[in-house]
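Sample intake sheet
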Amino acid sequence: MSNTPATPSLRWDIGPAYDLFISLYVLHKPAMFGLRPLWAAGVRSRLPAPLRDWLEDAVDFHGVPLNWLHALPEPKTARTALDTLAALPAAGRLPALLSLQDARPEMKTILERIAADRTHTPADVDAIAAMFQHRSNPPKAGAAARLCDAFTRLEETGEWLLEALELYYQVFFAEEERRILPHLYAAQQAAQQSAQTLSPDRLVTGLSQGVRFSALPEMQEIILVPSFWSSPLVFYREVAPRITLMIYGARPADVALVPGEQVPEGLVNGLKALADPTRLRILRYLADEPLTPAQLASRLRLRAPTVIHHLRELRLAGLVEITLQADGDRRYTANRGAAEIIFQRLAQFLSASGTAGE
C-alpha cells in the first residue's frame, strides 16, 4: 500500500456572475481590498437610497453566495444570475442566496420559524448574532436584527432584492462585465497551463498569491474560479463533502480595479504596507518563523485585533503568506521576494511617468 498523500483533482469554472456579487462585496468593504472608499461610495450612490441600503444589508446577510453561484446554469453571466433569481418565488430569493438549506441547523430552524410566524423575539436576534460572530468577517452591528426583520416579510424582501440587483447591473455592472471578461478567460487559460506542470498544492498557492491549505491532501476536488474583483484575495468554501470552491484573483498587476486609474492598487498597497513600523516588525518576526496572530500579539504586546488589521494590510500587499490549518488556525510567514517586486513596480511606474507627456 502506498503512503503517498492523495492528490485532489482539479475542476474549472468561470463566469462574471461571480464578479457581480464579489464586486458588491468589495464596494461595501473597500478597505479590505485596498479600494478607495470615496470611489466605492460613488458607485454605490448611483442607486437610490432605499435600494442602496437594502443592498448593503444583503451583502451583510449572505456575503458572496458561493454555493448558489456555483450551482448556476451555463453560461454564468450576470444576466444568468439575475434571471435565475427572478425565476424563483419572491419569498425564496433571500433563502436561496443564503444557501439556507446548507446553513447551520440552528440558524435554519430559527429563520424558517420566523418566516412562518412573521415575527421574531430578542432571543432569536441574539442567537443569529452569535452565529454571525463565527464568520471570518462578521457583519456590521445590527445585521442580525435586520436579517430577522427580513425573514418576517420574505415576499417583499425578495422583490426589493431583485430590484436592487437589477438596477446595480444596469447602472454599473453591465459595462464592467464587458471590461473584465477578457481578463477572466486569460487568467483561466494561464492557470490551466500552469496546472500541467505544477502540483495542486503549488498551483493553489500561486493562484491565491500565498495561501496554503494544510488539509489539501484530504480534499477530493478543488474547483478553481477566476475573479477580477477579488484580487489579490481569495474566497473559498466547501460546496460538498471534500470538494472546495476557490475564487482566485484574475486582475493583472498593471491593471487597476478603478477604470482609468493610472496608479495600480498593488503598488499603492505595497508602499503603504511597508511604510508602517509595526508592520515592518511583524515582517521581521515572520521572516524567522511562521506565527499565528495570537503569537504575534504576544510578542508585539498589542491587542489581537490590531495585529489582525496589520496582517490584512500585509496580505493585501502580498508581503505575507498564510497556511490555513485544519483546526481553523492561520499561520503567517513573510514572503521574502514580495518587497523586491514592489520596488520593481515602483521603478517601472516612475520610468513610465517620467516620459509621459514629453
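Comment: The mean pLDDT is 91. The chain has three domains: 9-13+180-249, 16-178, 265-355.
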